[in-house]
Structure formats: C-alpha cells, structure tokens
Amino acid sequence: MPSLAGVAEQKALVDLPAAGGKPDSVVVRDALGVGVAVGLSGFAFGVTSAGSGLTLLQTCVLSLLVFTGASQFALVGALAAGGSPFTAAAGAFFLGVRNAFYGLRLSEVLRLTRAVRPFAAQWVIDETAAVALAQPTRRSARIGFVVTGLSLYVLWNLTTLLGALGAEAIGDTGAWGLDAAGPAVFLALLAPMLKSAAERAVAGLAVVLGLGLLPVLPAGVPVLVAALAAPVVLWAQGRGSGR
After folding, report:
1. How far is C-alpha 85 from the chain's CA centre?
2. What pLDDT, in 10s, does the model give residues 139-191?
C-alpha cells in the first residue's frame, strides 16, 4: 500500500506543468469557470425557444446538434418575430461561420488526430477557442478545450431542457417578461467583447441598421442586413488610414 507521502508526490508530478506552462489544476479551474458561467445561460435559450413556438424536442435538438448560443438565439428570435424559417436559418448560419475560422486556428494549436477531429468540431465555439488559445502550451490548450467544451456542452443542454420545461409550465412567457431573456443574455455576452473603437462602431452601426429596417423589411432580414456593418466599418477604417 503506497504511503501518503508517495501519493502526494505522485499527485504533484501529475500536476507539474511543462516548461513555461500552467499547472493542470489551474487550467481545469479556469475552464470550468467559463463552462459553468456560460452554460447557465441555456436557461434563457430554453425559455426563449419555447416562447417562440418550438416544441420541447425541437429546442433540445437545437442545443444538442447546433450548440452555438448566438446562432440559436438568432434562429428562435427570428422565428418568434414571424420570420420565415429560411431567413431565420440564414441569420443563424452567418453567425456560426466564425466557428470555422476558430477551427482553422485550433487545428494548429491542438493537433488532434483525424479520428478525434469530427467530434472535437462540435465543441469549436467562442468559449472553447478563447480558453484554448489563451494557454501557453499544447498540453494546457488541449485540457482547456476539453474541460470547457465538456462542461459547457453538458450544462448548456441540461439548462436548455430545464428552461423549456419551465416555459411550458408557465405558459405565456411574454406575460412574465421572459421573452426578453434571450436578447438580454446575448447583449451580456457581447458587451465585454467590444474592446476596440472599430468593434464598438460595428456594433453601433449594426444596431442602427437592424432597428431602422425592422419596420420595412420582413422579420429576420434586418439581422442579415446588419451584418454589412462589419465590412462598412472596415472599409471606412481603411480609407481613413490610407490618407
């Protein structure tokens, strides 16, 4: 039977970081913090989705298969506003395209085997990319990606289910003001990301385009038009720096 000192020594060796890296326990702690904090917002999605008319099964399948909060909120938000499934899906698709660019960067950092990549792709989202890319070594990047992805996926789907069940039990979510839960969570996730002047300009122009075109265009289309804010701001920024 190993002594207590031997067990402690083995634990210390397991948690010993590579040169220039972080202890595994620190990476796990940080990754769990992100996974739990963001995963709880699944409640808001479950409520919003049920309030937009989707069934419990449809709501849960969206979280299981799509698993990217911004796209999911955009989809159910457009449907709730009376938009066609095509425009709702198009808006969700364009929001999700960014994950493909995350995947290109993460493939270089994580260097996963080909057999694992299709499964890891399901977890390529803002939070897993942020945690993995913030790590100094490949080992800690892999740990951060897996722990963030697993904790967030499990909690997001669990809270989606609970939120949808709660919305069905309440009935009219609009009467309780819960129809605003989705947009509120989306803004709360977005606001900390707007650090530069260009990012704030894109967000501001997107709001102006979206709200300004809301009365004159079909539901869901203003969201697509608002995406033009990014290239417009980049073009204006390029002209300004070229002078």
Report:
1. 21
2. 999 999 999 999 999 999 999 999 999 887 766 555 555 555 556 666 666 67
CA distance 131 to 41: 18
- For tokens 């897996």, the residue is 146
Q: Indicate the angle between helix axes 56-65 and 69-80, nearest 10 degrees.
A: 150
Give residues with Cβ within 8 angstroms of 118, minimum separation 6: none
Reading the block at residue 127, the tokens are: 């939070």
Tell me the whole-structure pTM to 2 decimals. Answer: 0.71
Q: Which residues contact 175 (CB under 8 A, 6 or more apart)?
A: none
Among 70-74, 159-163, 216-220, top mean pLDDT goes to 159-163
Radius of gyration (C-alpha) of the chain in whole angstroms = 21
Q: How far is CA 236 from the centre of its chain?
A: 29
Q: Which residues contact 134 (CB under 8 A, 6 or more apart)?
A: 144
Do residues 105 and 133 lie in contact, with contact meaning Cβ atoms separated by under 8 Å?
A: yes
Phi then psi for 136, rounded to 5 degrees? Answer: -85, -20
Residue whose tokens read 């039977």: 1
Tokens of 91: 């808006």
